[in-house]
């Protein structure tokens, strides 16, 4: 019997001692050259967003408030599974004709068709003309990663991708590790808390011809500041002049306005555009169902590529499939089946859209409540930007020191760039938050 056997008290104690020794020992000692072949591996820094939850969970204060993570919360601060999703899930589970076989590399065809219609409209030119390739993806992040890998391997015009400043933190890592060269373009103008439209146009106008440009389809994360319809037309103009390749990231369709079609307006403007000689605008889209269907952990999304003609679309699709095959072979079936059941069933789809509008409505109401509470708390400065921004987040303008003050004194957790998830705010806690912000602005 080995000394590590835990079946007798004596050997159990020995095993526990050995475990303790392993936990305490610095990874160095033994004469054979070291304890682990991974000794050179450095500790990674905590993820700036997911790390916030770690700190929040360790905090024992009953007052604690997590405004860091971009997931919807109810007025009671709880995660929400939409009623339409619960019903669809039951249908999927009860469907005895379903099995657990692999699905094709491109995913569930019905899910792909419905996702494309949701993004581009039910009768889009690109779909009707056979120029649209759609592949199921591992939520938005997976779609960005597969799209990035495809572009790094097969897009000849440029390997540069321009990202807005600021942007969702993971864009840099996803595209950088795909092999693209990440470059910045101006987006947010801190003094006016508005879009730096002139800076954006100047930077994209100076981008190398053919470069890829990442555009948030709506509800820009982290700023909550979107271009106006007129400004989107200006962005399309410069994209066409420089022959840039737009890569849309749509993680919040329906969350900005509560209306799926309204939130797809910028994307559809580009998707239906024609350039010189009637050449269709080509683009990529990473679409996520994490927020708008509340399917976060199910990892449901799609990558769409609009090509200039069906022949190119076919070749592109074949290469994107190769990227999928090499990364994870084929996507998971359950979440996509649930999303398909919601979108395909008119009653469930209507119920989902009503629930989506209600989530967006609660977030808008929390914006107004926070501005009112800040006024009551006498917080110095103007806070109107909180109601003019849209989507899940507010870019409050709080400094890093003020955010640390909120965390250490008030147990309020947020990213240190001043971004708060409005979904984490409730009527019950809004005055506490406003008092804390007023204190931080005065004293931090
Ligand atoms: C702008 C943006 N893009 C993509 C994602 C990816 O989300 P997921 O991979 O959960 O779909 C997020 C999530 O927060 C996001 O904010």
From TrEMBL:
GO terms for cellular component: mitochondrion. Its cofactor is pyridoxal 5'-phosphate. It comes from the Eukaryota. Its EC number is 2.6.1.1. It is an enzyme of class 2 (transferase). One of its GO terms (molecular function) is pyridoxal phosphate binding. SUPFAM superfamilies: PLP-dependent transferases. Residues 63-437 form the Aminotransferase class I/classII large domain. It catalyses: L-aspartate + 2-oxoglutarate = oxaloacetate + L-glutamate. GO terms for biological process: amino acid metabolic process. The keyword Transferase applies. Pfam families: Aminotran_1_2 (PF00155). Belongs to the class-I pyridoxal-phosphate-dependent aminotransferase family. Homodimer. In eukaryotes there are cytoplasmic, mitochondrial and chloroplastic isozymes. This is Aspartate aminotransferase. It comes from Raphidocelis subcapitata.
């Amino acid at each position: 019997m080995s000394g590590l056997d835990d079946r007798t008290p004596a050997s159990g104690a020995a095993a526990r001692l050995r475990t303790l020794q392993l936990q305490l020992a610095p990874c160095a000692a033994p004469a054979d050259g070291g304890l682990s072949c991974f000794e050179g591996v450095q500790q990674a820094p905590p993820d700036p967003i997911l790390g916030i939850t770690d700190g929040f969970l360790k905090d024992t204060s009953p007052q604690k408030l997590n405004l860091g993570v971009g997931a919807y919360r109810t007025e009671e601060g709880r995660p929400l599974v939409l009623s339409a999703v619960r019903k669809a899930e039951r249908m999927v589970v009860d469907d005895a004709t379903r099995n657990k076989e692999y699905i094709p590399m491109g995913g569930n065809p019905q899910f792909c068709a419905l996702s494309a219609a949701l993004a581009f409209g039910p009768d889009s030119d690109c779909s009707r003309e056979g120029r649209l390739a759609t592949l199921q993806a591992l939520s938005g992040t997976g779609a960005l990663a597969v799209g990035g890998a495809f572009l790094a391997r097969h897009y000849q015009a440029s390997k540069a991708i321009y990202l807005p400043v600021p942007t969702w933190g993971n864009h840099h890592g996803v595209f950088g590790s795909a092999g693209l060269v990440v470059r910045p373009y101006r987006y947010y103008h801190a003094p006016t808390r508005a879009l730096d439209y002139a800076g954006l146009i100047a930077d994209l106008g100076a981008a190398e011809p053919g470069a890829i440009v990442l555009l948030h389809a709506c509800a820009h994360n982290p700023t909550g500041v979107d271009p106006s319809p007129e400004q989107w037309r200006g962005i399309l103009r410069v994209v066409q002049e420089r022959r840039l390749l737009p890569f849309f990231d749509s993680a919040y369709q329906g969350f900005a306005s509560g209306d799926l079609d309204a939130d797809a307006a910028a994307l559809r403007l580009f998707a239906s555009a024609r350039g010189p000689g009637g050449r269709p605008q080509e683009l990529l889209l990473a679409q996520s169902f994490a927020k708008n269907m509340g399917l976060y952990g199910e990892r449901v999304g799609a990558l769409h590529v609009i090509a200039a003609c069906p022949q190119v679309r076919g070749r592109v699709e074949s290469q994107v499939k190769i990227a999928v095959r090499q990364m994870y072979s084929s996507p998971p079936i359950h979440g996509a089946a649930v999303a398909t059941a919601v979108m395909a069933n008119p009653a469930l789809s209507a119920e989902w859209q009503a629930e989506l509008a209600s989530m967006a409505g609660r977030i808008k109401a929390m914006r107004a409540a926070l501005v009112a509470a800040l006024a009551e708390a006498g917080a110095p400065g103007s806070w109107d930007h909180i109601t003019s921004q849209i989507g899940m987040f507010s870019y409050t303008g709080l400094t890093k020191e003020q955010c640390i003050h909120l965390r250490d004194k008030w147990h309020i957790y947020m990213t240190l760039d001043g971004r708060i998830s409005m979904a984490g705010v409730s009527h019950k806690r809004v005055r506490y938050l406003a008092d804390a912000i007023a204190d931080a602005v005065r004293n931090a």
